[in-house]
Amino acid sequence: MDLFIIIALLVIVSAVYSYINARFIKLPGTIGIITIAVVVSIITLIVDESDPYIAKYLTLLAKNIDFSKVVLDIMLGFLLFAGALNVDTKKLRKEMAPVMILSTVGVIISTAVFGLLFHYVGLLFNIHVNIIYCFLFGALISPTDPVAVAAVIKGSKLPSHLEMIITGESLFNDGVGLVLFITLLEITRTGTDNIDFAKTAILFVREVFGGIALGVFMGFFAYRLMRSINDFQTIVLVSLALVMSISLICIYAGLSVPLAVVAAGLFMGNRSINSDVKEHSHEALEKFWKLVDEMLNTILFVMLGLQMINLSFITNYFITGSLVIVLMLIARWISIALPVTFLRRSLQINYANVNILTWAGLRGGISIALALSLPHSIYREIILAGSYFVVIFSIVIQGLTLNKVINFSFRNKEA
Predict the structure, then answer these.
(1) Do 215 and 264 contact (CB within 8 A), yes or no?
(2) HEC states along the chain?
(3) Cα dihedral 176→182→183→189 (10° resolution)
């Protein structure tokens, strides 16, 4: 299928789903769109069995999109930069301790706990997965998704400090999760006997700290360019070029794209480009990126729903998917509760907050993209299906019930 046709159909489908939700269903944007996308994909699969011609274009669209490549190499940089640019950095600094603990130690704990639980509990359900692949599975679904989180918490009743913690955590933990995923993926290829810890440590330092350093440097460079001009159109083009150049450099230099664009976005979001002769340029730039963020969000979740056409085998994994959801919530709760138990004063999080942070830790397109990037193996289908179940449950069920969990937690606290 021609590239223009793919883009045109994707935009048209996104507009139709968005209109149907806004006009008739009236669910929160992200939740409504992905619900419609999943339902339409199921109908498409059923229709395709009886009359393939009717579902021809939607099926072709789904099968011609390289979801993993589009999300990880193209959309991720723009979405993370947009999210970071609009973060209140003053509030983020106040919550930096819990944000950094949850986005690093929390991800590692969640990966380990989920991997162990899935390996041993899975045996009780006749699900046999190698322990290394269980940890690999944990690494790709442990980080919370900044796109899903930002889309769902907009209409939530989260207290401001908890909203900032979950937002900041979701921005930073993708970088850590990706490094952990790449490391474990390498172990599956070479075997546990050939682990080079020095090489792994160098990889981690280069990916994480190299990405952050590049992001700050590029953000400063772009900021100085924007300060020196008055033309808003050029300012927008510089910001777009910033994201694209960071993504290109990171891909070729082996640095973390998520951490680099987040660092650049936070650096620029904290500094106004306004001057005496420029009126509201910074505010206008933030509004532009907010619009980009919302449009790409819609397209991303439409693509996520369409993946069901490509992953039709998930109907064989309802028990596995249900088990993965339960184990992921347990691993998420433990990954927050353990740091809170030992660092309660410095983190300023109580156990009522642990339940809220657990339920607000949503997964999204990045987890599916990473699962799709896995090389073919006997465990790939299980991991793909499990990831899809977690993501759909996370966005639809957790997203719709988040406010009820918040009210329940605070009601119990008051009692």
Answers:
(1) yes
(2) CCHHHHHHHHHHHHHHHHHHHHHHHCCCHHHHHHHHHHHHHHHHHHHHHHCCCCCHHHHHHHHHCCHHHHHHHHHHHHHHHHHHHCCCHHHHHHCHHHHHHHHHHHHHHHHHHHHHHHHHHHHHCCCCCCHHHHHHHHHHHCCCCHHHHHHHHCCCCCCHHHHHHHHHHHHHHHHHHHHHHHHHHHHHHHCHHHCCHHHHHHHHHHHHHHHHHHHHHHHHHHHHHHHCCCCHHHHHHHHHHHHHHHHHHHHHHCCCHHHHHHHHHHHHHCCCCCECCECCHHHHHHHHHHHHHHHHHHHHHHHHHHHHHHCHHHHHCHHHHHHHHHHHHHHHHHHHHHHHHHCHHHHCCCHHHHHHHHHCCCCCHHHHHHHHCCCCCCCHHHHHHHHHHHHHHHHHHHHHHHHHHHHHHHHHHHC
(3) 170
pLDDT in tens, 141-197: 999 988 888 888 877 788 888 899 999 999 999 888 888 898 889 888 877 666 677
255-274 confidence digits (pLDDT tens): 889 999 999 999 988 777 76
Bridge partners of residue 278, in order along the sequence: 275
Q: In angstroms, what CA-CA distances link 57 with 5, 127, 160, 309, 314?
A: 10, 36, 44, 12, 22
| Token pair belonging to 240 | 């777009």
Is the torsion defined by CA of 103, 106, 110, 116 positive or negative? positive
pTM over 0.85: yes
Look at phi and psi of residue 231 and say left if phi exceeds 0, alpha if psi is from -120 to 50, else beta: beta
Higher-confidence residue of 154 and 244: namely 244
- Domains, the chain: 3-414 (1.20.1530.20)
Q: Which residues contact 366 (CB under 8 A, 6 or more apart)?
A: 71, 72, 76, 143, 145, 147, 174
User: 370 — alpha (psi -120 to 50), left (phi > 0) or beta?
Assistant: alpha
pLDDT digits (tens, 9 = 90+) for 309-354: 988 889 889 999 999 999 999 999 999 999 988 877 666 787 778 9
Task: For residue 334, give both structure tokens.
Answer: 């433990």
Cα 316 from Cα 349, distance rounded (Å)? 40
| Dist CA 303 CA 68 (whole Å) | 11
